[in-house]
Design brief:
Elements (H helix, E strand, L loop, with lengths): L1 H15 L4 H17 L1 H13 L1 H8 L1 H5 L9 H16 L17 H12 L1 H13 L3 H26 L4 H15 L5 E2 L10 E3 L7 E8 L6 H17 L4 E8 L4 E5 L1 E2 L5 E5 L2 E9 L15 E5 H13 L3
Parallel strand pairs: 3-4, 4-8, 5-9
Antiparallel strand pairs: 1-2, 2-3, 6-7, 7-8
Helix pairs in contact: 1-8, 2-6, 3-9, 4-6, 6-8, 9-10, 11-12
Amino acid sequence: MLRDLRVKIRNRRSNICSCGHREFLPLSKQFFAFVSSNPLLSSIIAELIARNPKSVKEASDQQVASQGIQVYGDTAEEAAAIAYTKWKPFADQDRPEEYFNHTLGSGGLDDSLSRYRDWYVEPLFEYLDEVLEDSNIVLGTLIRYKHKVEWYRRQELQKLFDDNSSKGEKTLAKHMYEYLFDQGIPFHVEPETASGRPDVVSLDDSDHPLIADVKIFDAAGRGSAYVQKGLYQVYRYCTDHNESVGYLVVFNVSDKTLRFAMASGADGIPRFEYNHKTIFITVIDIHEHEGTASTRGIPDTITISAEHVIREADEQEQAPS
């Protein structure tokens, strides 16, 4: 699948980087439509933007944009974040020559387009190709795991939990880690600590450690407050390790719907954003519901908002050590 996706990306790269200035805008629109329709690419972009808030802010500076000044990144990842932040708004508007205003305004349209592609097109394509080659796609892998479990393994995981519910959280976490391993993501799971911090799964060949935690939601003893605490724990560990991105996976073993009233991207995955940290939340429903969705009526929904988690964070930060 990744190989086929890389071929599609490279074909689009070839077309966009060899077209004339009249075709550049429609091909750009087609490319970003392709990205938004592909859950894997959408997740890569979401993680890229979340990890590089400083570069995104610099690239979004309207004063810099109006002067056509190039924004640089210190790393290839920062350059890719800048490229996306610059190129995507161009694709969202309808003036074919708008790129000219972002390249110092020197030379003709073709020269300006060549410069624009060097600055804001090639870095993004190079980043996507490298990430797909390395298979370092955490959020996309978690989304595929969610779909696999809910579509094909729901009963199996519910039984794993029911057989020993007191240790069910660890059992389900182990099942998820095994899937990540099978998908080629190298990691090791840190031993549990007395402080109650979340599991940290470290990628041995990555610049970014994977900070993740698994929680159970049973709508009772491990209800919304328990999940909120888990979100705070991931945030706290991201802060301790100076990482911008973390992941919370919640297995819903109850008959209730767990909803996060938080921002989400095109992928539909909610994310908790606080103090320059982004925690992606994946809810996996493994409860065996009676009847089909159309016959169950309106589900009983438990909602967790960003305000709830921020309040939890504030209380934890102010608590005496």
